[in-house]
Amino acid sequence: xxxxxxxxxxxxxxxxxxxxxxxxxxxxxxxxxxxxxxxxxxxxxxxxxxxxxxxxxxxxxxxxxxxxxxxxxxxxxxxxxxxxxxxxxxxxxxxxxxxxxxxxxxxxxxxxxxxxxxxxxxxxxxxxxxxxxxxxxxxxxxxxxxxxxxxxxxxxxxxxxxxxxxxxxxxxxxxxxxxxxxxxxxxxxxxxxxxxxxxxxxxxxxxxxxxxxxxxxxxxxxxxxxxxxxxxxxxxxxxxxxxxxxxxxxxxxxxxxxxxxxxxxxxxxxxxxxxxxxxxxxxxxxxxxxxxxxxxxxxxxxxxxxxxxxxxxxxxxxxxxxxxxxxxxxxxxxxxxxxxxxxxxxxxxxxxxxxxx
Length: 357
Hints:
- The structure is a single chain.
- The protein is of the alpha/beta class.
- It folds into two domains: about 1-50 and about 115-120, no CATH class; about 50-100 and about 125-335, Aldolase class I (TIM Barrel, Alpha-Beta Barrel).
- The chain is built from ten helices and 19 strands.
- The protein has helices spanning about 90-95, 95-105, 115-120, 130-140, 155-170, 185-190, 205-215, 220-230, 250-260, 285-300; strands at about 1-5, 5-10, 15, 25, 35-40, 45, 50, 55-60, 75-80, 125-130, 145-150, 175-180, 195-200, 235-240, 265-270, 305, 315-320, 325-330, 335.
- The strands form five sheets. An eight-stranded mixed beta sheet has the order 8-9-11-12-13-14-15-16. It has a three-stranded antiparallel beta sheet with strand order 1-6-5, with no helix packed on it. Strands 2-3-4 form a three-stranded antiparallel beta sheet, with no helix packed on it.
- Helix 6 (about 185-190) links the parallel strand 12 (about 175-180) and strand 13 (about 195-200).
- Helix 4 crosses helix 5 and helix 9 packs across helix 10.
- The longest helix is centred in the last third of the chain and has 14 residues, at about 250-260.
């Protein structure tokens, strides 16, 4: 069992976790909002520093990252737990596992009244791993990066940090797929070995964001600025959910925020399909995504992509100067890539991103 990073001890055996913007103050015996950081007798421990519940080889386009080493595979890992409670989470069976498991067990006689740390960690699902073992597996599969994904990587920060440092030494890139709620100090510590991140910007209305995710919007916006300032390549995804975040004025405000920060940030507007607690919502109309893409370009963003709709022109990368098609995609696959050293072969315009290492 490992003591967690980024927390302060308080009076009465309580602790203040400073890892993410949820800002949890946890009594002895309690857990943070993520469900995997536990206060045991005044010391905060992580329950997921040595186990993953999912690991797969994914195309980098699945993250989605379109301007970061296109057409390579990424060794992708995740644990249980999450600091958000998104109504539309497609991975809710792992991200919400600590909450769902506690709800299922409610009313049963507990086997142990005051569980030991060992008992607590033994109850966490997943395969036992080490950072060195993860890097070794990633290299053996021929992947060029490790992606910390499926649930929120911030909540398995210790495992991600140790793995990322070894991965960097081994020549692998490191990628976060994140909700952006990490605080400044932990992001600054991992930044030297973090190459890219796709950040979910789920809603641009503060009240709606709170209802949709259980978390505040402002820290996510601050985090997007911080990632950019630290020189980490970022792309932003907005899953467009009918009736929640598809109003044109909200999409226009969101696109304006990104464009004001950097018009070269790729923005992915992706199609929602009914899931988890939003099964009563329809799938996003394709026309809504096309309009969102237009809104992004009107706001000054040079690269706006539509997602979860294979075959749309919005999947392809085009030169912002001459319009030449540079990368053609279908779904999560790259059909061809005509970039020449990161430049348009026709007009020699440099395309922002990371296209070679």
